[in-house]
Write a structure and sequence with these properties.
By secondary structure, the protein is an alpha/beta fold. It contains one helix and 16 strands. Bound molecules: 2-acetamido-2-deoxy-beta-D-glucopyranose (5 copies). One 2-acetamido-2-deoxy-beta-D-glucopyranose binds next to loops.
Amino acid sequence: MATQRMLFLMSLSLLLHLWAAEAAAGHTEEAQAQALLRWKSTLLNSSSLSSWSYAAPTCSWYGVTCDDHGRATQLRLTESNLNGTLDALYSVALSSLTVLQLYDNNLINTIPVNISLFLNLVTLNLGGNNFVGPIPYQFSKLKHLTDLDLSINMLSGPIPWSLSMLSTLELLKLGQNNLSGGIPEELGALHSLEVLDLNSNSLCGPIPTSLGQFSMLVWLDISGNHLSSTIPFELGNLTSLVYIDLS
Ligand SMILES: *[C@@H]1O[C@H](CO)[C@@H](O)[C@H](O)[C@H]1NC(C)=O
Ligand SMILES: *[C@@H]1O[C@H](CO)[C@@H](O)[C@H](O)[C@H]1NC(C)=O
Ligand SMILES: *[C@@H]1O[C@H](CO)[C@@H](O)[C@H](O)[C@H]1NC(C)=O
Ligand SMILES: *[C@@H]1O[C@H](CO)[C@@H](O)[C@H](O)[C@H]1NC(C)=O
Ligand SMILES: *[C@@H]1O[C@H](CO)[C@@H](O)[C@H](O)[C@H]1NC(C)=O
């Protein structure tokens, strides 16, 4: 009798556990679907996102990749004719995102500071859009970032020195914007950097000697700026380099 009751209690607690786990997963998926659909509703041309609807599970939507728990980890919407802003994208329900890839769309306005709250991002690519205004210095909070591509927009203001805190960064592309000021000396702290592309901006001042510290750098393009013409002796230390354009 006692064993039977114990078995009953054990299976009851197991059922409750399963039910709770399922409810939690369902909650996550519903919240992330809501968040993505809310952003979609702010876009002017979302015909490429026709699969984004409650009719199908979120993880099957165009451009969305999930982990085993059904959490959206990647949003890859390259060349998808997206017209609108990123203002409505941030939601805590999407905090598992590791990849935000929106290259070559028609996105406008400033880059919202709250994109820096996607703390798990490894890849952030907003290149080839029409973003204006500053690069949020709060991007320094993205401690797992390896690829940051904001090239081919209309961003202005300085390159935030705080980007030097992204110690895992391997690729930094800010070319073809309207960035001004100097190249921050602090960037020399990016020990894992392999690609640094700052071409065609309005950068001025000296080429920092700290750039000689990039032992992994294979690609350096700082052409098309107003930098002083003296090439620091220290650049001779860039032994991995295969491409350099300082013109
Ligand atoms: C989307 O943006 C492109 C480029 O800015 C523009 O030519 C097109 O008319 C826009 N489409 C809509 C629906 O706003
Ligand atoms: C809207 O996007 C579709 C493909 O996603 C594209 O064929 C169409 O030209 C776009 N319309 C406008 C007005 O931008
Ligand atoms: C994110 O930032 C944008 C632009 O500042 C703002 O409109 C939006 O309300 C913010 N989203 C959240 C969830 O705070
Ligand atoms: C570039 O930025 C400067 C200010 O730094 C501004 O005066 C100029 O209008 C901007 N140019 C473009 C094309 O946005
Ligand atoms: C460059 O390498 C030389 C040795 O070849 C070393 O003495 C110097 O400190 C290095 N400079 C930088 C900026 O790393």
